[in-house]
Amino acid sequence: MNRPNLINEAPEDRQERLRIAAQLINDAIHPLWNLGRFSVLGWRVFDGGIEVATLATSLLLKLCKTADQYSSGARQMDDPRYQQACEIPGVHSSQITLPDSIGSGPGLIPPSLVNSVITRYSVTKTLHRAVGLFDIVGFSKNDPIEQVAQLNSLEYSINIAHKRLRDIGLQINLARSTTGDGFYVWNRDTGLRADLASYLLVMLALADNAISRERYGPELAPLLRVCFSVGSHYSYYQVEGLNPRGYDYIVGEVTISLARMIDRCLPGQILMGEFERPVAKGASMMNTIGFVEQATHLLQRLKGMELSGGDIQNLSCYLTGEQIAPGCFNISRLRIRDKHGFPHHAYNQKMNIVLAPRIAGGPGANLYLGMQQEAMKNCGAASVIGGEMARSGEDENPPPVRDTAAASARMNQRE
Q: Does the N terminus or the C terminus of the chain have fewer Cβ atoms within 10 A?
């Protein structure tokens, strides 16, 4: 119940009250969870607090194969949906008494707080999320100290990319999980803007890694191959000790696709998976080509950003293809057949960056990341199965340029 004395509640008092409420919910759900044997199917509000529906995790996963409604979206349910869920065999409903009512007004417990606690004990599905996969080439052949150095260097590149984006106002709720010789990275926030921010983070991390390789050498800064795609996945919290971890783990269509792509990705290559995602709820779909084009506009916000090798003066990212006319190229769609014989489609991407001189009148620097289209002809990892559309510009790396004005002109021509 909304208590009058909480209408003008001080911020620190509200924070403490909500912390206590979250702890009460967590303490009540933890024994129902039973070390992961059960999961929360959903919850609803009742007069004295909330009701929680739980189901054996194995049964929930079977249910998810035929009904996305029990894994997609927030776990809060209205009364009819909650009652329907409780009719599923094996579902048990429990009441959790709370000192304050659920709602969005003063003195209330916001539903988002309940969802944030419930999520740790649930299996949730996300239909569209961007995920990047960094893989260190030849990692297993390195000695242990080099492995530690390379993982640390890659993590730093990811972290500094995150900070640089935050400094220009692009917020990312960054998450990652290790693959042993690399990392999956994603934005916990969803939506097109969140996915574009993830893409920029991956590109910036690649740039920082390239500069680190020049500065510290290949033993300390790794050679990478990188894949990026958008797709669906499930999220759950693994057990650590006797509690769910404080961060989520993802697995699903997008991570499986990335794992298959990375097996055929060459050292230094950047592969973009073939995907479609809605521009907004109920809106038209955007494919990989449209996504990269949309990201190009955001790339302009990175101009002037300070990297270790100098300030970004110009940059471009583009999907490669065959030359079809002077100064005009198509975009080649690649077919990758994985070790199980299943086909996956992808696009080869390049990224070119011009860095301004660190000293007035001095030379600038150029970063050319990714693989040229020409190199794809001699690799058995992927085959070109057709051009998608034409774009203007050069597809070859230009010769090294120290005149940054000339370099910028060339970069603009490619864009």
A: N
One domain, residues 111 and 135 = no
Identify the pLDDT of residue 10.
84
Question: Would the pLDDT of 318 be above 70?
Answer: yes
| pTM (2 d.p.) | 0.84
Q: Mark whether 311 and 288 lie in a shared domain.
A: yes
One domain, residues 108 and 233? no
Nearest to 45 by CA among 119, 91, 102: 102
| Angstrom distance (rounded) from CA 46 to CA 369 | 56
Same domain, 318 and 335: yes
Within 8 A by CB and 6+ apart from 151, the residues are 136
Residue 95 and residue 118: Cα distance in Å, rounded?
A: 14
Question: Where is the domain boundary, 64, 99, 121?
Answer: 121
Q: What angle do CA 399, 303, 136 make, to 5 degrees?
A: 65
Q: Write the pLDDT tens digit of every residue in 128-140.
A: 999 999 999 999 9
Tokens (6 digits) for 56: 């054996």
Phi, psi angle pair for 351, to nearest 5°? -135, 125
Residue 4, classified by CB atoms within 10 Å of its CB into exposed (0-12), middle (13-18) or buried (19+), is exposed
44 phi, psi to nearest 5 deg: -145, 165
pLDDT of amino acid 373 = 85
Q: What domain count does the chain have?
A: 2
Clarify whether residues 93 and 151 are in a common domain: no
- For residues 282 and 238, state if they share a domain: yes
The whole-angstrom separation of Cα 93 and Cα 24 is: 17
User: What is the structure's pLDDT at 300?
Assistant: 87
Same domain for 10 and 48, yes or no, is: yes
Average pLDDT, the chain: 86
Q: What angle do CA 181, 232, 138 make, to 5 degrees?
A: 15
* Residue 265, burial from CB neighbour count under 10 angstroms (0-12, 13-18, 19+): buried
For residue 391, give its domain range.
Answer: 126-414
Contacts of 122 (CB under 8 A, 6+ apart): 39, 40, 41, 71, 75, 236
Express each pLDDT in 181-239 by its tens digit. 999 999 999 999 999 999 999 999 999 999 999 888 888 899 999 999 999 999 988 77
Q: How far is CA 281 from the centre of its chain?
A: 19
The answer to whether 168 and 301 have CB atoms below 8 angstroms apart is: yes
- Among 55, 88, 121, the domain boundary falls at 121
